[in-house]
Design goal:
Layout: H1 2-25, H2 27-37, H3 39-44, E1 47-51, E2 56-61, H4 75-94, E3 101-112, E4 119-124, H5 127-140, E5 144-153, E6 159-171
Antiparallel strand pairs: 1-2, 2-4, 3-6, 4-5, 5-6
Helix pairs in contact: 1-5, 4-5
Length: 173
C-alpha cells in the first residue's frame, strides 16, 4: 500500500511540478502568490531568482522598509528570505500532492557574519534531502524532518548570514 501511495505521488508530482515552476517563474504570478499567501514577503520585496528540483535562490534588497537601526537589513527580513529558499523547494515537492503532505517549520537557527547592506541572495542547494523526506513520510506514514542550510551572500559573494531551517513533513490522512 505504501509503495502504491509513493507511485501515485511520483506520477502526480511529474504533472504538478511543471505547473508550479511555470507559476513561480512568472514574475507577475509569483508576486500575486506572495501577496495572497505571504504578504510580508511581498512587502519586503523578496524575489525568486531561480528554482529547479535541487536548488533555489531567493534575494532581498536592503531598503527603508527592511532596515534596522544599524543601517542594515533587519534580521527577520533575512530570516524570511532564508526560510523561503528551502520552503519554495518544499512547496515544489508538496503542492497539490497526492497523497496530501503537510509542512511546517519545526526549528530555526541563524548565524550572522556581515552586515547586509545591499542585495542578499540566499542559496539552498539540497532539494534532494527534501524529496527523500517526503518519500519517506509517504512510505512510512511517519513525520520526517529535514535540516536545511540556506546561505545568504552579498553581491560580492561574501557570506552575510546562514540560516538552518528544520522542516517537518507529514502525510495527511
Amino acid at each position: 500500500m505504501s509503495q502504491e501511495l509513493l507511485n501515485t505521488y511520483i506520477e502526480n508530482h511529474e504533472k504538478e511540478s511543471t505547473a508550479f515552476l511555470k507559476l513561480v517563474n512568472n514574475r507577475f504570478l509569483f508576486r500575486m502568490f506572495l501577496l495572497a499567501k505571504l504578504p510580508m514577503a511581498f512587502m519586503a520585496g523578496i524575489r525568486l531568482k531561480s528554482i529547479d528540483e535541487k536548488k533555489c535562490e531567493v534575494a532581498v534588497r536592503y531598503k527603508w522598509l527592511n532596515q534596522n537601526p544599524f543601517r542594515s537589513t533587519y534580521f527577520a527580513v533575512l530570516a524570511m528570505a532564508g526560510e523561503m529558499s528551502s520552503g519554495m523547494l518544499a512547496l515544489y515537492y508538496i503542492r497539490n500532492a497526492k497523497p496530501s503532505i503537510a509542512m511546517l517549520v519545526a526549528h530555526l537557527e541563524a548565524e550572522f557574519s556581515k552586515k547586509a547592506t545591499g542585495i542578499t541572495t540566499f542559496r539552498f542547494e539540497d532539494g534532494e534531502k527534501i524529496k527523500e523526506a517526503i518519500h519517506q513520510t509517504i512510505l512510512t506514514g511517519e513525520a520526517q524532518t529535514v535540516r536545511c542550510k540556506a546561505t545568504g551572500y552579498s553581491s560580492s559573494q561574501e557570506v552575510e548570514a546562514v540560516f538552518y531551517v528544520t522542516w517537518s513533513f507529514k502525510r495527511r490522512s
